[in-house]
Amino acid sequence: MTTDTDEPTLTIDELAARAGVTVRTVRFYGTKGLLPPPVLGPRRVGHYGGQHLGRLALIEELQHQGMTLSAIERYLQQLPPDLSAHDLAIHRAVVASWAPDATETVTREELERRAGRALSDGDVERLAAMNVVEVDDGSYRVDLGLLRLGVQLLDVPLSQEAILASRQVLIEHSRAAAHELARLFRGEVSERDARDVRSLSEHMHPLVVQALLTTFQRSLKEELREWLTESQPR
User: What confidence score (pLDDT) does residue 93 get?
Assistant: First the structure.
């Protein structure tokens, strides 16, 4: 678990705008204990940061899964209270993997509301290049499972070519891992009937996704640590 080092600098209005919710919703979540309290600055003005944004994104994803507010409250109570925005993003990725593939055709206004920010024409073009959005005669067909990730990538200081190449690497290696895991599971259920196969798949899917995310996260941290060590002047 990491500590959120981002200074809480957002006002409640800015937080609500970034998260795509209303100020009233932010306050309501705060009273329910779904959000940690803001940091009080001069004149007792509350300020919010990445951890609050991460929690709002996780709450939104849990709602998309059909969870009630009381169920979301129980889910969040099981999480460590000091999870960073990065850790919350990992939890959200696991939750998002539970949902089937979902696309929806929306207006530009609704697309920006779902994205939680205004989008320039260049932003939409980058999202289209990442296969997050498909533009069709003034309407936008959006992959809801990839939208928030795509929007976050808009702020990453990488070229479009590097992002697309990274996407291709992830697709190729994830498919290879999925193929090998499916081969192993087929060996385990070869003597069972179709109902047992479906039951095993339902139980294993969230576990495998979480295992892959955790393993990849740790491997990436190790690679970045070695890269930073090598780049240090000797």
Answer: 72
